[in-house]
Design goal:
The structure holds two protein chains of two kinds. Chain A is mostly beta strands. Helices cover 0% and strands 51% of the residues of chain A. Chain A has no helices and twelve strands. In chain A, strands 2, 5, 6, 10, 11 and 12 form a six-stranded mixed β-sheet that branches. A four-stranded antiparallel β-sheet of chain A has the order 3-9-8-7, with no helix packed on it. The model of chain A has no long low-confidence stretch (mean pLDDT 92). By secondary structure, chain B is mainly β. Chain B has strands at residues 4-7, 10-13, 19-25, 32-38, 44-51, 57-58, 67-73, 76-81, 90-97, 107-108, 112-116. In chain B, strands 2, 4, 5, 6, 9, 10 and 11 form a seven-stranded mixed β-sheet that branches. Chain B has a four-stranded antiparallel β-sheet with strand order 1-3-8-7, with no helix packed on it. Chain B starts with a strand and ends with a strand. The chains are: A mainly beta, B mainly beta. Chain A binds chain B through residues 29, 31-33, 35, 37, 42-47, 50, 52-53, 91, 95-98, 101-104, 106-109, and chain B through 2, 32, 34, 38, 42-44, 46, 49, 57, 91, 93, 95, 97, 99-111, 113.
């Protein structure tokens, strides 16, 4: 069965520094998608970045980049130049292929706190 | 683009009443919508997958008669919590997607906080 693991329940980072949030996954599918979402205290889930299993280059979106290591089955999120507004829960997720209904499987989440 | 709205954002009700939550995709047609439940400091738990014009597919352990889902159009899905009890108090959040492919992100609504007294 597919599974997502985030081993860091909480992380602290100093403002303006970079931080890496870990995510490992387990699947027997060849085609899958990996996503990161941010959930501030308001509760909304904000889509940050996507990496496809066939993508050879790491995805980047502004200050967010995804360190994709397929052989290790890891998809770590890197946030550069942290800002106070980055304090939130971060969830890694994997989307199953079409034949599996396209469901998202979420990790346990990492609570990031940015210190001024 | 890809905006999903959810209404209401907050609801407080008495035990035994039914509560309806609406999820709308505002600027795209969603082939599939998903309903999640989230407890404090925990991850999202998928309750059901909803496709327009067909019956929802519920996850194991989710009571179909308790949580009624209707996907009336490509832009609207509703979740009705019937005969709500205090243990149904939770954060309910929906998402919508353009297609079921693994490369398509799900876009989430802002969520609904339900408190059953």
């Amino acid at each position: 069965a597919q599974k997502i693991t985030q081993t860091q329940p909480g992380m602290f980072v100093q403002e303006k520094e970079a931080v890496t949030l870990d995510c490992t996954y387990d699947t027997s599918d060849q085609s899958y998608g990996l996503f990161w979402y941010k959930q501030p205290s308001s509760g909304e889930m904000i889509f940050l970045i996507y990496q496809g299993s066939y993508d050879e280059q790491n995805a980047t979106e502004g200050r967010y980049s995804l360190n994709f290591q397929k052989a290790r089955k890891s998809a770590n999120l890197v946030i550069s130049a942290s800002q106070l507004g980055d304090s939130a829960m971060y969830f890694c997720a994997m989307r199953e292929g079409y034949n599996q209904g396209g469901k998202l499987i979420f990790g346990q989440g990492t609570e990031l706190s940015v210190k001024p | 683009g890809a905006v999903v709205s959810q209404h209401p954002s907050w609801v407080i009700c008495k035990s035994g009443t039914s509560v309806k939550i609406e999820c709308r995709s505002l600027d795209f047609q969603a082939t599939t919508m998903f309903w999640y439940r989230q407890f404090p400091k925990q991850s999202l738990m998928l309750m059901a997958t909803s496709n327009e014009g067909s019956k929802a597919t519920y996850e194991q352990g989710v009571e179909k008669d308790k949580f009624l889902i209707n996907h009336a159009s490509l832009t609207l899905s509703t979740l009705t919590v019937t005969s709500a009890h205090p243990e149904d108090s939770s954060f309910y959040i929906c998402s919508a997607t353009l297609a079921a492919g693994e490369q398509m992100p799900q876009y989430f609504g802002p969520g609904t906080r339900l408190l059953v007294l």
